[in-house]
Amino acid sequence: MEAANDPLNQILHVMQSLKDGHQQLTEDVLSIKGRLELLAHQQCHHQTTNNASDVNTQESLKAIQAASLISSPSPTGLEGFTNAPSNSKMASPQRNTATSQSSRIILTTYPGQAGIDPVPMNWGHHDRLQRGPVIVSRSQSSIKRRNAIGAHGGSYSVYHALAIASKNLDVDYRPDFTNSEPAINLGPFPQWADAKKIVSLDPLGHLSPWLFDSMIRDENIHIRPTIAITKAHMKLPELEQSVRFGRLKPDGKICLSDTGELAVTKFAVEPVWFLPGVAERFGIDEGSLRRSLFENTGGSYPELITRADMKLFLPPIGGLTVYCFGDPSKMSDPNVKLALRIHDECNGSDVFGSDICTCRPYLIFGVEEAVKEAQRGGSGVVVYFRKEGRALGEVTKYLVYNASE
Hints:
By secondary structure, the protein is α/β, with parallel strands linked by helices. The strands form 2 sheets. Strands 2-3-6-8-7 form a 5-stranded mixed β-sheet. It has a 3-stranded mixed β-sheet with strand order 1-5-4. α1 runs antiparallel to α2 and α8 packs across α9.
């Protein structure tokens, strides 16, 4: 058995040596770069008249800068790169907002890399502080403390990147969460302490900035909520008909008036995937899930391959909204009945009333039943997923429409 393992051990030893060597090389390059920049600054300060010497120094500095722009290679052999610095005359002088904290592109990271110190994540731990916050920000003070892959905002993260690239938003912008606390108190529930029960959202996502405020304040770590809870009124023309025909009865609490106006508590939820749990749900191993996510998103998230220690992934997909009628605390009460509608987004029918499908009537029926159950003392919930056509997307959906004609 030992003989069979020898080649593997040798390979692992060589890979570790390569990683250690590259780490040292990166540190040496950065050290040389710093010294050359200092030398160039001193020469500029003393107004050195030796033009030839200045040119040589500048050319050497450019060479080192170009070398430093290459990020640390991963065990997969992938490398990051960027173009040479652009001509200052071509740069737009209109905004001074920073678009990057470093001239080096960090394509990926790996466990044990110098400076990498992720905040511990104990998914499913019963103690909320021991479980830890989801940290995915690449801000300067947080990038080495991340414990999750991806970006906040789901599919909207691309628009966030555009705002930074166009200098309409600073790369290290921090939102102010003052007075944005959840509109209701929710939980904790036993399911929050079971790593196998909840695998596609963060049950602490609505509390993160306030629960971990000391970490934000003392360690300057960027922590954002992935769930927001608010209260609102809902008005749909069909609900007025529901009141008129007697299917809904105004009670002043849930159905507020003869117009069918409803009181509702809304939960906006961004996806947070616990990769071991998601893999188990699909009956596959975690490695196969990570590889498929990496390869079939155009290689967008190399850390799915290089950071097996990070078990959370914030995917670039739409989230969901929960519409709760009645007392939200009853949603998890096993002693009361629950009327639940799970509904996938259908822009054509739900919003524009297209007659090519019947999604909106089903949605209205779900709302009616949820309201009636809440009025009977139970709980009424509609969960609205942002995945058009059961995640096929509208293009594929319309092609199917055409093919079925």
